[in-house]
Design goal:
0% strand; mainly alpha; 128 residues; 2 domains
Length: 128
């Protein structure tokens, strides 16, 4: 069976971000902090655990049929994560203290959300 490219890309992206947040929470907390106050490393590690878990879900589901009714829980989980991440990053980028890196990240997560949304709405036989 052929691997689903969206699950492969999302799985690797989420796993890499999750591992980075798990093993370098202080450094990431400095980057994520605002107005000179770093974010809590514990919160960054919890975020990393969630990203790691979602990445493994995608990685282990990469050979499963997705689209329409097939693989709906995996698609809905990813669609909700990427959509919420895109809207949150976009809102942050529009703010007064927005970081320049928020725009490309919002674009990337928005593209992933659109890809998962497309798969969710396609009939089962038409998914790539």
């Amino acid at each position: 069976m052929k691997a689903q490219p969206i699950l492969l890309v999302a799985g690797l992206l989420l796993l890499c971000c999750g591992v980075a947040a798990l093993f370098a929470p202080q450094e990431i907390a400095q980057v994520l902090g605002s107005r000179g106050q770093p974010a809590s490393p514990v919160v960054v590690q919890l975020l990393g655990a969630g990203l790691f878990a979602l990445g493994f879900l995608d990685w282990f589901s990469r050979f499963s049929a997705v689209g329409g009714i097939h693989g709906r829980p995996v698609l809905v989980a990813n669609l909700s994560f990427f959509f919420i991440a895109a809207t949150t990053l976009g809102r942050h980028a529009l703010g007064a203290d927005g970081v320049a890196a928020a725009w490309p990240l919002a674009g990337l997560t928005g593209l992933m959300a659109a890809w998962f949304g497309r798969l969710l709405l396609l009939p089962p036989g038409e998914a790539p």
